[in-house]
Amino acid sequence: QLQRRLLTSGQPSERKEDTQQQQQHHQAVDMQGRNLRERELILNVLSTVPSPREARKFLNSVYGSETMRSQRAFEEQQARLAAEQQQQAENPMQREDGARRRELVAGEIHQRHAQATRSVRADEEEEDPVLPRRLTALVFVDGLAGTDHQACKRVGKQLAQMQRIGVSPIVLLVANTNSTGGGAPAVRGSKYREIIHTAHALADAIEQEGGKARPVNDAVFYTSPHVRGQLSVDPELLGSALAQYLIPIVTPLVADSSLHVNVLDTNQAAPAMTRALAVSALPRHGVTDADGSPPMPGSGGQFSLLLARLVLLSSRVDGLCANDGSFHRFVNLEEDYASIEQQCRDRATLELMRTCLAILPPTTAGIVASVHSDPSLVLKGLISERPVGEPVPRRGAAGVASLQSGSDSSSNAAQQQQRRLSVPDYKPIAEYPFVKIGEEEKAAVVPAALPTSTRPGRFTLLRHGFRIQRHTSVNTCSQPRLRELLEASFGRQLDSERYFARLRALESQGGIEIIIAGDYQGAVVVTHEDISKQGDGNTGLRSHLPYLDKFAVLPSVQGTGMADILWAQLRRACPSCMWRSRNDNGVNKWYFDRSHGHARSAPTAAADGATRWVFFWYQNQNQNQAADSARFSALSIDEVQAGIRAAQNIPPSFA
């Protein structure tokens, strides 16, 4: 030992310099990696392109309480509706023909505690200190294998970037099994080792991307000793991980009374985890903050949960597709479930998301994406909570070409008008092929399990949603309630007598369409305006053009996806449509994202007082439908100009 000490102590200065150089090298490499991750995160957030309203809502969800006030107002209204539906169901005279099956009610758990929470807060003399709310996303990872390093890397990057923007993911690994872990002991041991290995591989991938994770393999799921087969979840282990800013990665393992470890089925583990987190956010007597939410168990009273996202990352699909190959970008479960259930290619995923969304608060959005999706795509769904829109038509595309048909290219004025009405040749920032600094791969890797025609560049957004009513006459809907909705949405007093008189007059002419969502919580009013006299003698125009007269959403249901639900119903009812909006309207950014073209008007001395309008339109992009019927045909430039003239002559609706 003395000889070794003498030999190793001969050059202390050189060893010290080598050690310092190695430390400096490692620090430089770590700094470079952090800088690259920072740049990529900033680029991915910028690629989401949120509107100012969407950005404010997301920031309020992370740092403020505005979202919770809106959610409580919505839950109170939903609780009242649920009570009315229960009374109607118990009254035999009000039942519909046939036995009605019990439908899932949005926020079912939260509704049952709304009245009790309000009474407790009224009795409190002193307010409790406000706990910070932790915006939480429950993430199901389906079919991920620890040996698939590329998939683990992508999922780890997605989860790490979620954590960086203020969303706390709670990850549940979903096992590809239809049993509860039965079979031979060798089979159970193989599943057990595979899941444990996947959890640790995913945790390592998160750590490499700058995040912090903790695999939670034991004691999360347990069976009740009193009720046979009842599965429970202990949320304290999850709360302790979140309190230390760690991403808990939960494995679907449970030990029975004989201490045999079984692998839980997806339909058991996912709803049980969802219900446990929903119950953890329920108001409880004596331990609530000013917003009525208790501290998260295991957090030491540091924060309470705000469940706002439900994400399913699948290794098999990148969203919900029908059997004919059509992709569902947005699903209103309350209205669309019955129609798409039989034709859905992955019915198990649809049913799982429907069950879990019914347990969570009604403002929760569900996302189904691929484990191979780019992180910017998932961040887009988290921040904006709107479906990925269809590509905006470019110059030279079929839709724009048909829009320009009928114009005189030899006339300079017509050319200027054509340029003014044409859609700008641009595409959103998220569609540009950015080359990330320090990244060697040139394109996204598509797994061999996915069809070659499927690319992980899309996702399906799901909402529990609302029931839809459709009317073609003012007399069949409730005019007082529609008036209240319009006034609450626009913040102005409606000239109801003149407005409804105009709608009645249009019923016998071009017709009207009124779409009501929920209990008059949102509405779309479409009028078919006569443009035959606005086309400068051109007999090739269609006689009437759908005009979006009103698009209204109650403030109390903002954040529930109501606008997207109404817009999807509008696109179904009217393949082509025009509308106008004031030049300074804050919703114009939302309109720009969903329109195929726009035109601005000069100030006029009309009866509404020198208003500058922006005229928007969208048109049908399905060429097969356009060839079958004139209703589905794209708009020509003459029809757009005639529609603008007709829209300018529409009288104001508000006093």
The count of DSSP E runs of length 2 or more, i.e. the number of strands, is: 21
Number of helices: 21
State the end-to-end distance. 98 Å
Radius of gyration from the alpha-carbon trace, in angstroms:
29 Å
Provide the structure class: alpha/beta
* Estimated helix fraction: 40-55%
Low confidence ranges: 95-106, 120-128, 177-182, 285-291, 390-455
Shape: globular
- Output the strand order for the largest sheet: 3-6-2-1-9-13-14-12
Q: Main beta sheet: strand number and arrangement? A: 8 strands, mixed
Your description of this structure?
The structure is a single chain. The protein has 655 residues and is α/β, with parallel strands linked by helices. The protein has 21 helices and 21 strands. The strands form 6 sheets. An 8-stranded mixed beta sheet has the order 3-6-2-1-9-13-14-12, with helices on both faces. The relative contact order is 0.10.
